[in-house]
Specification:
By secondary structure, the chain is an all-beta fold. It has a single domain, classed as Metal Binding Protein, Guanine Nucleotide Exchange Factor, Chain A (Beta Complex). Helix content is 0%, strand content 43%. It has no helices and 12 strands.
């Protein structure tokens, strides 16, 4: 489950857990499980040598008073994933550190350190991980 502000952005048990070298897993959530209107395209892209071109979204939530809460460029998807990653089509990943709350099987997620990677740390995942200051060289 993912919350931004007081609202639920995603609540699903159909996520895909992707492991990458020296990272906690990233969870890719089915696009059809995202609350309507929660993803706002921003026109930003990045490139992964394995998964291909990612496109980014702002994530829009609401606080308890109904005011908008915005997490800038906090979600991404691979519209045409590279070979071997086709299952990621129609899924979206979120930076847990930019959300109010993310959980996996009821456990609160800790965000991967740094501002580039979107790993979801739980008690079942043990590092060391990339992302913290001084870890980009391995």
């Amino acid at each position: 489950m993912v919350r931004l502000g007081a609202g639920v952005v995603v609540d699903t048990r159909r996520s895909l857990r992707v492991l990458e070298t020296s990272h906690p897993p990233t969870y890719y959530l089915p696009s059809d499980a995202v609350a309507p209107g929660s993803l706002v395209p921003v026109g930003a892209t990045s490139w992964c040598e394995f998964k291909g071109r990612a496109v980014y979204f702002d994530v829009l939530g609401r606080d308890a008073a109904g005011r908008e809460v915005l997490a800038r460029a906090a979600a991404w998807t691979y519209p045409t994933p590279g070979p071997g990653y086709e299952a990621l089509r129609d899924h979206v990943a979120l930076y847990p550190g930019r959300m109010t709350l993310c959980t996996v099987d009821g456990e609160v997620v800790q965000a991967q350190e740094g501002d580039f990677y979107g790993g979801w740390r739980t008690s079942r995942v043990v590092g060391p991980f990339k992302g913290a200051r001084g870890t980009t060289g391995w």
